[in-house]
C-alpha cells in the first residue's frame, strides 16, 4: 500500500515537474509572446502615427483637391464665358465678313465707275488744257491789245490835256483883258458873266493839270527806296499855304514808321489826303487832323483822320473814281481826280487804299505800304 502510494507520488511529482516545465515553457513562450506583442504594439503605434500623418496629408491633399476643384469650376465658368464671347465674336465676324464682302463688291463697282470717270476726266482735262491754251493765247492777245489801248489812251489823254492848255489860257487871258479894258462898257451882269468865264477857265486849267498828273502816273517809273515818313509828312505840312480867313489846322501826329516806296509819289499821296482833310473841315469851328500809323500783316498802314463833312458810305464805290465827287462844286471845290491819283500811286506800290466815314462826323483815309523789314 505504501509502495503504491510512493509510486503514485513519484508519478505525481513527475507529472507536477513536467507540468512545471510545461508552465515554464509556456511562461517563456508568454514572455516571448509578450515581447512580440509589445513589438507589434509599438509597430501598431508607429503605423498609427504614420496613419495620422498620412491622414493629415490626405486631408491636406483633399483640401487642395477641393481648392483645385473650385478653381476648375471658376476656370470652367470663365472658359464657358470666353467660349460664349468667341461665339459672339464669331457671329460678329460672320456679319462683318458679309458686310466686308458687300463693301468689296461696292468698291469694285466704284472702282469700275472711277475708271470710267477717270477716263472721262482725262478727256475733259485734255479738252480743258486745249481750252486753257486757247484762252491763254487769247489773254495774251487781249493783254497786248489792252496795253496798246492803254498806251494810246494815256497818250491821247496827255495830248488832249496838253493841247487844251493853250485855248484855256487864251480864253482866260482875253477875258481878263476885256474886264480890264472894257469894263465900263458892261453892266453888272456882264461883269459877273466875264468873271464866271475867268473862274471856270481857271477850274478847267486845274482839271487839265490833274489829268496830266494822272496820265503821267502810268508812264512814271517807280523808284523804291526807304522813306522816312515822319520827315516827309512834316515837309508836306510846312508847304501848306493858308489864307487869312482860313482856320489853321491842328495836327495830332502819331509815330510814323519808315516804309519802302517812291518818295515823290508818296509825297503826292500825303499832299492829296491832307489837303482833302483840310478842305472838308473848312466849315468846322476848329480844324483837327490826326495822322498816324500801325503795322498789320507785314504792312505799314498809314491814315489821315478829320472831323469834317464826311460822306455817305453807300456811295463809297464812287470815291476813288476819276471825276467822281460826293459833294457839290459850290460846297467844296475840286476836280474829282485827287483820290484817283492817290489810289493809282498806292496800287503801283502793291498797296491798298480805303476809307471810313460818317456824314457830318468826319472821315479817315488809310493806305498801306511795305515796311522796311518786310
Automatic annotation (TrEMBL):
InterPro entries: BphY/WalK/GraS-like, HATPase_C_sf, HATPase_dom, His_kinase_dom, HisK_dim/P_dom, HisK_dim/P_sf, Sig_transdc_His_kin-like_C. It holds the Pfam family HATPase_c. Residues 104-152 form a coiled coil. One of its GO terms (molecular function) is protein kinase activator activity. SUPFAM superfamilies: ATPase domain of HSP90 chaperone/DNA topoisomerase II/histidine kinase, Homodimeric domain of signal transducing histidine kinase. Residues 159-373 form the Histidine kinase domain. Its EC number is 2.7.13.3. It comes from Pedobacter cryoconitis. The keyword Coiled coil applies. This is histidine kinase. Keywords: Coiled coil, Kinase, Phosphoprotein, Transferase. One of its GO terms (biological process) is osmosensory signaling via phosphorelay pathway. It catalyses: ATP + protein L-histidine = ADP + protein N-phospho-L-histidine.
Amino acid at each position: 500500500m505504501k509502495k503504491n502510494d510512493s509510486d503514485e507520488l513519484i508519478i505525481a511529482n513527475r507529472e507536477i515537474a513536467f507540468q512545471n516545465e510545461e508552465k515554464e515553457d509556456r511562461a517563456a513562450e508568454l514572455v516571448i509572446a509578450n515581447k512580440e506583442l509589445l513589438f507589434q504594439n509599438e509597430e501598431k503605434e508607429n503605423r498609427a502615427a504614420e496613419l495620422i500623418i498620412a491622414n493629415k496629408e490626405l486631408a491636406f491633399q483633399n483640401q487642395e483637391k477641393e481648392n483645385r476643384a473650385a478653381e476648375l469650376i471658376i476656370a470652367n465658368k470663365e472658359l464657358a464665358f470666353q467660349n460664349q464671347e468667341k461665339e459672339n465674336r464669331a457671329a460678329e465676324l460672320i456679319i462683318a465678313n458679309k458686310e466686308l464682302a458687300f463693301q468689296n463688291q461696292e468698291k469694285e463697282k466704284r472702282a469700275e465707275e472711277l475708271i470710267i470717270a477717270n477716263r472721262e476726266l482725262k478727256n475733259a482735262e485734255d479738252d480743258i488744257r486745249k481750252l486753257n491754251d486757247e484762252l491763254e493765247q487769247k489773254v495774251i492777245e487781249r493783254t497786248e491789245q489792252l496795253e496798246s489801248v492803254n498806251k494810246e489812251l494815256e497818250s491821247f489823254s496827255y495830248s488832249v490835256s496838253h493841247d487844251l492848255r493853250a485855248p484855256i489860257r487864251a480864253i482866260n487871258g482875253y477875258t481878263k483883258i476885256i474886264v480890264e479894258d472894257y469894263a465900263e462898257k458892261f453892266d453888272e451882269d456882264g461883269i459877273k458873266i466875264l468873271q464866271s468865264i475867268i473862274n471856270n477857265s481857271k477850274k478847267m486849267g486845274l482839271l487839265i493839270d490833274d489829268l496830266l498828273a494822272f496820265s503821267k502816273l502810268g508812264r512814271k517809273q517807280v523808284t523804291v527806296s526807304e522813306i522816312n515818313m515822319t520827315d516827309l509828312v512834316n515837309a508836306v505840312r510846312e508847304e501848306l499855304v493858308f489864307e487869312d480867313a482860313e482856320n489853321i489846322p491842328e495836327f495830332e501826329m502819331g509815330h510814323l514808321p519808315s516804309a519802302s516806296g517812291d518818295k515823290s509819289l508818296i509825297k503826292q499821296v500825303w499832299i492829296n489826303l491832307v489837303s482833302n482833310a483840310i478842305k472838308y473841315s473848312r466849315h468846322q469851328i476848329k480844324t483837327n487832323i490826326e495822322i498816324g500809323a500801325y503795322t498789320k500783316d507785314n504792312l505799314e498802314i498809314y491814315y489821315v483822320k478829320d472831323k469834317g463833312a464826311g460822306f455817305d458810305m453807300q456811295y463809297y464805290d464812287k470815291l476813288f473814281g476819276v471825276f467822281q465827287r460826293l459833294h457839290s462844286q459850290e460846297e467844296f471845290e475840286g476836280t474829282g481826280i485827287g483820290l484817283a491819283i492817290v489810289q493809282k500811286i498806292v496800287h503801283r506800290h502793291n498797296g491798298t487804299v480805303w476809307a471810313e466815314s460818317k456824314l457830318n462826323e468826319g472821315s479817315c483815309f488809310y493806305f498801306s505800304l511795305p515796311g522796311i523789314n518786310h
